[in-house]
Design brief:
Layout: E1 2-9, E2 12-17, E3 31-35, E4 39-43, H1 44-47, E5 52-56, H2 63-76, E6 84-89, H3 93-102, E7 109-112, H4 118-122, E8 126-127, E9 132-133, E10 136-140, E11 146-151, H5 161-169
Parallel strand pairs: 5-6, 6-7
Antiparallel strand pairs: 1-2, 2-8, 3-4, 5-10, 8-9, 10-11
C-alpha cells in the first residue's frame, strides 16, 4: 500500500510506501544494520525490554537531520541505559559512524536500513519518489507497542521533540 500527500518535500507532495504506523499498534518487525566490530544487526526483538525511541531521518549529512540527531542525543543523555535510542536512515553504517564520531553522538545509536529498506516499508517511511526515508519519530514501550508516532508533514522541518520526549519519559 502507498500513501500520497501525507508528506511534502519543499512543498511538493510525495508518496510513502507501506502502511501508516499509529499509536496503539504493535510495532512492525525490522532488521537494521550498524557497524561495531564488524557488521551487526538490530531488530525489534533487540529493543524490547526497554522503552525505545526511533528517530527516522532522510540522511545524517543534511542540516535538519544533523540537528534532529544532535538534539535527541543531548536530551536523551540523562536517561542513560533505561531506554533504547536509535537514529534510522538509509546512510551506510560507516557514514553514520563517521557522523556520530565527528559530532560526539553517544546517547543514540545509528542504524541503517540500506540493505533492503524493510524498516521503511514496514513503518511506512520510505519515500517512493526519492528512495529515502521521511522524517518521523516512533516511541515504543518495553513490549514493542507504539505509544507515539509522528510523520513530520514537511520533510525539511524538525519533529515535535517535546511530544516525543514526553511520550518516552512517560514510559519510565
Amino acid at each position: 500500500m502507498s500513501r500520497t500527500g501525507v508528506i511534502t518535500f519543499k512543498g511538493n507532495p510525495l508518496t510513502l510506501a507501506g502502511n501508516e504506523v499509529k499509536a496503539g499498534d504493535a510495532a512492525p518487525d525490522f532488521t537494521l544494520h550498524y557497524f561495531q566490530d564488524g557488521m551487526q544487526t538490530l531488530t525489534l526483538a533487540d529493543v524490547k525490554g526497554k522503552p525505545t525511541i526511533l528517530s527516522v531521518v532522510p540522511s545524517l549529512d543534511t542540516p535538519v537531520c544533523a540537528t534532529q540527531t544532535k538534539k535527541f542525543n543531548e536530551s536523551l543523555g540523562e536517561l542513560g541505559d533505561r531506554i533504547n535510542a536509535v537514529t534510522v536512515s538509509l546512510d551506510l553504517p560507516f557514514a553514520m559512524n563517521r557522523f556520530c564520531g565527528a559530532e560526539s553522538i553517544t546517547n543514540i545509536r545509528p542504524a541503517s536500513d540500506y540493505q533492503d529498506r524493510n524498516f521503511g516499508q514496514n513503518f511506512g517511511t520510505l519515500i517512493e519518489e526519492l528512495k529515502i526515508l521521511t522524517r518521523a519519530i516512533f516511541v515504543l514501550d518495553a513490549d514493542g507497542n507504539v505509544k507515539h508516532a509522528e510523520y513530520v508533514p514537511e520533510v525539511t522541518e524538525e519533529p515535535n521533540y517535546d511530544a516525543a520526549l514526553a511520550a518516552l519519559k512517560g514510559l519510565l
